[in-house]
């Protein structure tokens, strides 16, 4: 019979056989797919795997720590964390256009990741070892969408590290290629990964950078992180995590409205709650969630987050609205 235990045993044996005595690299995004793929390869080849996590400073509260501490504790994986917050914020300074933000974040991400990769390759070479594999959390639906075919990744390095050739060629290891999302979660659970990672809802690669309408700054990110943490805490406490596909929390940084708080008039920013129900994110409907939960989130955000004096609910389906605001 086909169980997650079998899947793990089979994949571990296959990865061991393929990787042999060579080394592998895996990028961690904080999401479930890359985490489970990394955990499987770690189980197969241990410290022959090095994971790379780029902290772009656009993650939600506690998410980087989840990877750095909980994921490492659960798997024993060798992890290289690159703190690139300043670099991303500098690149994003003065930019409000959504597409431009996405392009900048994507571009910086690739540069930082490739540099880390090149460093790992160089370090290994210094020890007479060969980094030959790149681990990716490709799922079955991704395979179908892109027309199948395993391949190699040509990674162009823009950074000259220790006289490496410009092109580093890796073979891809994709241990989740036969699995659907729910099966990946089961494998992750079986491997003992933290619940917060295994059950994580979708979160965009560009992170909170595309949930601030307006320029992205450190202060605004900190503010949004607080509001988002409150919303997530209350949704979890209300037992709504399984009913809601995801709930983006958006800061309208370029909008101000008048309010009255404490001893006087305020002129603050609105926070938007965007709870959606969906099967596959292609279409979505706004979630009819309990008013009392909305009320608690609103009260807490306006009380606890400075500069926010209003919380609004997005009641738009997709289409016409997208799930994210940018
Ligand atoms: P939209 O906003 O297009 O989002 O309705 C659909 C789903 O995709 C997620 N999303 C992204 N995920 N990188 C990602 O990995 C991205 O750049 C990105 N943009 C949107 C979004 O959260 C939703 O689940």
In words, what does this structure look like?
The chain folds into two domains: 4-198, HUPs (Rossmann fold); 211-313, 2-Layer Sandwich (GMP Synthetase, Chain A, domain 3), CATH 3.30.300. The protein has helices at 4-19, 32-45, 63-75, 85-92, 98-126, 140-145, 181-190, 195-198, 218-237, 291-304, and strands at 23-28, 49-55, 78-83, 131-135, 152-156, 167-173, 212-213, 249-252, 257-261, 264-273, 276-277, 285-286, 308-313. The protein contains ten helices and 13 strands. Mean pLDDT is 93; it is low at 154-165. By secondary structure, it is an alpha/beta fold. It is globular and about 65 Å long. Helices cover 41% and strands 21% of the residues. Strand 11 (276-277) and strand 12 (285-286) form a beta hairpin. It starts with a helix and ends in a 13-residue tail after the last strand. It binds xanthosine-5'-monophosphate. Residues 202, 204-206, 246, 281, 318, 322-324 line the site of xanthosine-5'-monophosphate.
